[in-house]
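Morning!

As promised:
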Amino acid sequence: MIFKYRRGNPIKTDSTVMYIESNNELDFFNKIIKDKKILFDIDENTFVYGLGGSNRGINKIGYTYTSYCSDDPVHTEDKTSLYAAQNFFVIKNKKDIFGIFIDSPSKITYDVGFTEIDKFNIEIESEDYDIYYIKSKTILDIVKEFRKLVGRSYIPPRWAFGYGQSRWGYMNEEDIIRVYDKHYENNIGLDMIYLDIDYMDNFKDFTINKERFPDLEKLVKNLKNKNVRLIPIIDAGVKIEKGYDVYEEGVKKGYFCKDEKGNDFVGSVWPGLVHFPDFLNKDAREWFGMKYKYLIDKGIEGFWNDMNEPAIFFTDRGIENMFSKIEKYRGKKDIGVFDLWEMKDSFMEMNNSDLDYKKMYHNLDGNIINHYNVHNLYGYNMTRSAGEMIEKISPEERKLLFSRASFIGMHRYGGIWTGDNFSWWSHILLSMQQMVGLNMCGFMYIGSDIGGFSGNCSEDLMMRWLEFATFTPLMRNHSAIGTRNQELYQYKNINKLSSIIDIRYRLLPYIYSTFMKCVLRDEMYFKPLAFEFDDEISIRIDDQLLIGDEIMIAPVYKANQNGRIVYLPEEMKMVKFKESNVLCEEILEKGHHYIKTELDEFCIFIRKGKKIPYANIAKNESEVNFDVFNFLGYDNATYEYYNDNGIVREVSEKYIKTI
Amino acid sequence: MIFKYRRGNPIKTDSTVMYIESNNELDFFNKIIKDKKILFDIDENTFVYGLGGSNRGINKIGYTYTSYCSDDPVHTEDKTSLYAAQNFFVIKNKKDIFGIFIDSPSKITYDVGFTEIDKFNIEIESEDYDIYYIKSKTILDIVKEFRKLVGRSYIPPRWAFGYGQSRWGYMNEEDIIRVYDKHYENNIGLDMIYLDIDYMDNFKDFTINKERFPDLEKLVKNLKNKNVRLIPIIDAGVKIEKGYDVYEEGVKKGYFCKDEKGNDFVGSVWPGLVHFPDFLNKDAREWFGMKYKYLIDKGIEGFWNDMNEPAIFFTDRGIENMFSKIEKYRGKKDIGVFDLWEMKDSFMEMNNSDLDYKKMYHNLDGNIINHYNVHNLYGYNMTRSAGEMIEKISPEERKLLFSRASFIGMHRYGGIWTGDNFSWWSHILLSMQQMVGLNMCGFMYIGSDIGGFSGNCSEDLMMRWLEFATFTPLMRNHSAIGTRNQELYQYKNINKLSSIIDIRYRLLPYIYSTFMKCVLRDEMYFKPLAFEFDDEISIRIDDQLLIGDEIMIAPVYKANQNGRIVYLPEEMKMVKFKESNVLCEEILEKGHHYIKTELDEFCIFIRKGKKIPYANIAKNESEVNFDVFNFLGYDNATYEYYNDNGIVREVSEKYIKTI
């Protein structure tokens, strides 16, 4: 059952695909809503789940989260906003269980037992919003109802479930070819190589640097012949440069965001000065989305949309403010500590400043709207722009598309990665925990930068991260320029690393089939134990995940461990992998077990009475036999297997066979 | 057995108190030392312990650590230098076990299986150093030998084991009185209130702001009548101000560090422009140390030495560099991203810059030495200055003294706190892990800022942090100005919080006695399980600690948990505390156990056949009966009880009775 409360005249987000009549008189709404505030009582038996890829644990209690897409790469525990803004959550306590979706692009703050340990306070900045109240018997039922409300999740081609190698720092064709060759020589599975910003001519979207990539089309073709795809980045900002067609057209057609005077808004990002396409304007969306054709025509089959919070490094306003702050102190004797900090702050505030966002305007169906009020819709609509037009360009075949910023609704057009993380052990766990909230909000094709984007990744960290990422739909090794090279062949024990990738490919029929069923049926691919088991131990476990209906994973995410404690909520069959193969299998009783796993070993736990497909060793999705394979798990079990051609856009029960 | 290798002519650190003849021909040294590098092979069965309060886990394998005292408050996993520089470690592998102490004040980098997973590389910047190789049967024996080499650890008065409340932001006498009153009214135990920088007149050491503290002596006396001590901060930098006696004397006597022209070196810290006392100069040390008498004469009985890495916020050099960098861009059109970052970097490099440290000079026994080469000795010698002179001022009675920066040798003069941490759950665990390396290096009176210095501390985080800190010798709640107030009375469930403090006082006879025995016998107060048990599980456990010989703790350090898995390496008796009392006791078998502990519950595990003293409920150290108490643990056990008057400087076996 879904009930809706409408306050004022909310901005249309297109998050939902079903119409629900509002029912403002409902007792429930009157109890919890006080103007722009929503209040719930909580206690030590309350659990709050959801809020997409927000910070901290699976259970959101104990901190504050602000929905405000933020380009902040340092995801320490104290950060309240990461890249996404996803306003759906479920509250479960002893008496009750229900879901809430706040459909509003405005800044929303969730104080979940932080300021007051027994209160969950929500504050919506806007006067206008829709709130959906979703009532059902279980968390999974509530999620399913919610997912129906917001529409079917995006599906990438099957090859996008292969392993991808990325790095900001591949400068030219030779770099790309070397990455391919090194994977090939070292027998490391590979399906995708990603192009970060350096493939472009001066960071201009839909251009190619001809010196570095003299014949991209040929490079794409050559790699495609080896079944490896090149996946370029597209940034939100369009470089201001006379003669550059995207810029010229955008200006002419009025498709860029405006400033308060009605001129095209100017910010600085990688290309230098840019305008920002007005993705809230349907015409601009169609126009920009069709630009992807330029690269699709060169054989490109996938994209990642970046910098679309949108990130703004600085504007003239910020620069002027900085110079004027600093001017005061020029030549001054005895500059004080607080003087210096004032100067420093003038630098710090420039980056992604609300003062700039508040000077930027959109044209939404003819209405001029301040960007600050719809900030959370920007990345969503960039990816919608691409998704809608790519479907027009390629109506039969799926293409790969994922985004950094996101908002509920965007899940229909693309996946996401969790943005710039660090080579921290704690970020393995964080990304595990993020997967749950993201799935609840409809984001299914998801993953984190394996090994960490910033910082230097050691071999053991890479190994453990890969072992978890074996189960994320998006499995991409990505890192920043200036950090230690972290392609798998950079380490000492390449065989050990590549053998983890081998397991990924052996499990690909299972991973893909599970993913497809979850999308088709609005189910969750990643679930915490708490969503299926209600014993006292299961409900608190935040470092194990159920994958589909058949397996549980319990990755090692701490340094210098050769095993970990795993809790089995029921009997399961442990299958341990090593050297591209099953090392051992054992049926384990319900309860806690210390599972020994050396660095290059990892486990799945197959649920009682279940089995899963287990394919041949392959180094590429094309080499995986999706029709003939063995099984892991319990004898006499059956498995519902989803098997299409891996590319068809249709999603249907007809592709499912019980085997 | 201790062997010494000497290279060149090392700077005298006074880290050691025993003379060891050097034996450069020893095969061991020739195998591992290559000029300024030391190399060990490691494998998956190697463990490296020690390096004081350095970052990351108890086992140091998997990362890089640089000994270089750094005022960096953001202790994320990627930081290589924290506040301390402590160059003792133990390597244990299948074949061998030994300790290494590098006695050199220079920057030293330890790459422990990070760059190459099978190599432990050490690089010493200086050409001159002593290396001690310590061979014995067990880790604990090696630690004991090392501790004999470097001398007996500092001991504070017994009241310093009570609970302390601190905050940067107590501005005046009224604030202090309110803190006392609120603790009293709410029945929260208290022994110390700390004064951060605002008690001083313009941040000048050994001055009092008369407007804010019109009669400090009286305040001290009034609080002392209630058995609460006021503990002021002392910073390293001395404000440049005409007429200020410390400044005037220091200049006149030539006791400040010099610049390259021989003028007194100038840096900016809290007071504005300062000189830095040359703590490497014995005369300057005596002079500065005697200044503490000014406050001791007002009844003060303890101090914390801060900013003694030394922190330098900026110098004229940095400011000039910044202005010149920025000047280039003034009025420039189209400032690029990298232009802006160059400007920003010119701000960032100002703080604690090596460029400044390299312009600062010491007078060590008549030799002029560049600060950069002896940087790690600075905080050590500040605290040595205070410790040596306070002992002269008060030869009979111990005083409280601890420091932020440290180096081995300093452990004889004071304790340390782990510096500016964050209100992060992960920092409970980090501080647990730091305790081990610190104890190995001789630092015994230690603790971390409870609740976190930076960031906002929620009630549940405070509760769990207190539960761990119940066992740290230094138990201080400290936080930064601008953060959420985190005195215990600021939260909803004050009783639950204060009942944890009650347990601290009930365990005070045990904590103090254990501490004293460990100092007397060069033993460790905090030990990982690996130091006493060699089973496969114990050696990997990094989140449980043994305290003395009698108990094990396994704190809950994760949010939203009402229990955790605890591993018992042998049978133990669990004692669970709640509401200031024992809630239950149970003998548990060897193995893993899920121990349920609600937010306000916590456990100790008493080792088989042991018992510990358990005193009356008290709200202050003076109320604890150290002569008459009950016991927790196994019947028929005995306990070696150290019981002196809590203040006498003598340490002796004579104070130990078996009871």
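Chain A has a mean pLDDT of 97.

Hope this helps with the figure draft.
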